[in-house]
Write the structure tokens for this entry.
Amino acid sequence: MVCFRPLADAQAFETAYQDFLVAVERMPAYQRKQVVHVVASPLGQPPYARVLELYYADRDTLEDAMRTPQGQAAGALLARFGAGGVDILFGEVYEETV
């Protein structure tokens, strides 16, 4: 998951985010994504503007993709969000239907 903090300039955020999204979609073994537009928090102002969930077959596949030139290019684009502007988390998904 890539958790993006908002930028003061909303247009700059959207441009940087879209550029990052295009770069991520060029990474090898990428399967799918889910995008969460954060709209509120019960604790007040939410810390994130957007959460991008990227899906790969497994963590090793993701880490291999991150080491490719495409992965390195995508990672370099995160600097546009500034120091502390992005948090990256690795997780395993468990889905349940009700």
Summary: The beta strands are 2-4, 32-37, 50-55, 86-88.
